[in-house]
Write a structure and sequence with these properties.
9 strands; about 260 residues; alpha/beta; two-stranded parallel sheet; Rossmann fold; about 15% strand; seven-stranded parallel sheet; 7 helices
Length: about 260
């Protein structure tokens, strides 16, 4: 299927205001991940004050070098997470938490899927509760665009997820829980259904399959969603006919061809 034309992105700073009031503070949960560290670099460059969570002291040093206030916390430790979010006092939380092996190593994926599902369900529950308690106004959360049930393509955001599939069902049910928690919370909730990631840090130099997504474009979508768009679900992938990205392009003025410069990575 032919690629869908994407209009040229505006290269000006995408930092905006939320509800008419200038906002300065963002917490990125999972800031040390492959998307998180790119996103943090973008947000700092846009002028945001950024705090970022990680479980690793090594990654904390890396975040500090990026201009991010690092916070070491385990998302499953609900009381500690609550304290961290309250102390950070963010206006916006961006949820980029995952637990997957480098390059999605096949021999490790069975256990990783279980861990990742736990983060999406229980980790999200703890993060949402902490965000509510801290008075957060908006949350942007990572989901996936490759858990749709078989049907006509390109898949739109209202298509059913493949909840009962023996292979993808565990992940599909976990992201369904994540999405429901974010979208029903008393703040503006944005869910970004990411395609199959490739690019630096992912272990994949080339698009790995249908509905691919470069990590730089994934981070740019989250950066834009921090201040753009109504609550809801948005497909974020390249326009290869697998999923419809019209909603994200129109709402965020997002371009899947976005790439960071070499000096920005």
């Amino acid at each position: 299927m032919a690629d869908v034309p994407i209009r040229q992105r505006n290269n000006a700073s995408v930092r905006q205001t939320l509800s008419g009031t200038p906002k300065t503070r963002i917490l990125v949960a999972g800031a040390g991940g492959v998307i998180g560290r790119r996103l943090c670099r973008m947000l700092v460059g846009d002028g945001w004050s950024v705090a970022g969570t990680t479980r690793s002291t090594d990654k904390a040093s890396m975040l500090l070098d990026l201009g991010v206030e690092p916070v070491i916390v385990d998302v499953f430790d609900a009381p500690s997470l609550l304290g961290v979010v309250r102390k950070a006092q963010p206006d916006i939380v961006i949820h980029q938490l995952t637990d997957l092996p480098p390059a999605l190593a096949p021999e490790k994926m069975a256990e990783a899927r279980i861990r990742n599902a736990r983060i999406r369900e229980i980790g999200t529950r703890n993060l949402v509760a902490a965000a509510i308690a801290a008075g957060v106004k908006r949350m942007v959360a990572q989901s996936i665009a490759f858990a749709y049930a078989p049907g006509p393509m390109p898949y739109r955001e209202d298509a059913s997820l493949n909840l009962d599939d023996p292979d993808i069902g565990l992940s599909a049910r976990a992201v369904a829980s994540l999405e429901r928690q974010v979208l029903t919370a008393p703040f503006e909730g944005i869910v970004l259904r990411y395609g199959k990631l490739y690019g630096p840090g992912t272990g994949f130099d080339r698009p790995p399959g249908d509905g691919p997504l470069h990590v730089d474009a994934a981070a740019d979508a989250a950066r834009r969603a921090a201040t753009c768009g109504k609550s809801g679900v948005y497909n974020i992938a390249e326009a290869d006919g697998t999923v419809s990205i019209d909603k994200a392009v129109d709402t965020f003025d997002w371009n899947p061809d976005f790439r960071l410069g070499e000096t920005e990575r």
